[in-house]
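Thread: phosphoenolpyruvate complex, take 2
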Amino acid sequence: MLIQALSDANLALQALQEKVVGSAQAEIFRAHQELLDDPALLEQTRDLLDQGKSAAFAWNSATEATARLFQGLGNALLAERAADLADVGQRVLKLILGVQDSAWDLPEQAILIAEQLTPSQTASLDTRKVLGFVTVGGGATSHVAILARALGLPAICGVPAQVLELVNGKQVLLDADKGELHLNPDLAEIEQLQATRQQQVLRRQREVEQASLPATTRDGHHIEVTANVASLQEVEQALSLGGEGVGLLRSEFLYLDRNRAPSPEEQAGTYSAIARALGPQRNLVVRTLDVGGDKPLAYVPMDAETNPFLGLRGIRLCLERPELLREQFRAILASAGFARLHIMLPMVSLLSELRLARQILEEEALALGLTQLPKLGIMIEVPSAALMADLFAPEVDFFSIGTNDLTQYTLAMDRDHPRLASQADSFHPAVLRLIATTVKAAHAHGKWVGVCGALASEALAVPVLIGLGVDELSVSVPLIPTIKATVRELDLADCQSIARQVLGLEEAAQVREALRVYHAATVETSLVVEN
Ligand code: PEP
Ligand code: MG
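Output below.
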């Protein structure tokens, strides 16, 4: 009975993946499929079956115990895995018990309010009826939030539990851009939000239609817009949305849900398939494993640390375990020639780290008989690297600025802290000044600079990044058309002047406000020009 239920669940998850192929959702359901195979979970279930327990009891106890274990480790990513496991657990349990999932009978134009939604529930929402949802659980980085973004559904997660007391059928207004739920909206507010939404839909349509046009400012300055990806499917999706290459392949996400390390052949196969999909004219920037901090990797066990974000992370961990880095370099090098290969080191804070890693790369390339080394660059996500960019620049081929970590290390604010989320803002002038320092140093040595942190995916930030001289924006896949369209509305000279202005401001809120004013003026001007 259990084997049949596991196999049926596997088929259902396969079907769900095929429905959303190439998206973040597909990755989540693939991870769910892997949980069905988890050896520790199956062993616990088998032990209980051997003790004479029923299949339903054994499966349910094993999944609940494992989810509790994940939850108790105080790590956001593992807590997320606990939510996934609960979801898979319920799916299999219903199959064992023969319980049919009754579809929710939702009215038209519904705003769904729930304590928590599972990824499966979110993915199966009827987007013709549901306009958006609000949950008490979850946060901006939860899988449910990722799914909402992929479905284009407005959503706010992590709201106070009182929201559950609202009566069914009450009229509410969800303004997800501002993170607000209005409980007594008047007609004028409703009409205004509807008009804004309609405009957004039309704008999105236009952006997607024009996605293959280059991202060139009005005065002819080209910005390369590439994609942040974590799978081959995302690469294919990025190309279909006008992505000009891959600016960040987060290699640690390729095998996040594995309990065993992928074989060298499998790794080489993955990188080569991605490089082939891009072709010899496009950049592929593969970031070496960035494990540690908030990103544990099951097959790279690590000692517990008091301050994981300040501990063995990224290149530090790889240099402590050079075999891991050597094996990854070999696998990446196997894809040389299929795309314009770039290798990027994460979390570099010392010159010695770069030099050591380069030496290992050169040894591996030599052993493989390669005459030409791929380009080697570093992430700029630690203030020491930004401040010393003039010394790093002669020794690298490029920089890519990771604004997510650069912000947390510059402002000393945990990037996932729920109470600091609004202050840990990459628009802070201190972060922008470090970007300016980096670009100046790189250009003085003829090297290019990208931004691959989330700041690059914010349309509001595009003028300042261009004005500071950034050459490439590597953005989350669905936003490629938006960022390209934004670049096409701008003038380089104006961007340089707004960049100079915001560097002198005091705080992130002031920078955002200045950019909003600038944006409103630019959009008005471009409307006049188009007419
Ligand atoms: C960053 O820190 O901005 C970045 C791109 O790396 P990650 O988000 O994977 O840490
Ligand atoms: Mg980072």
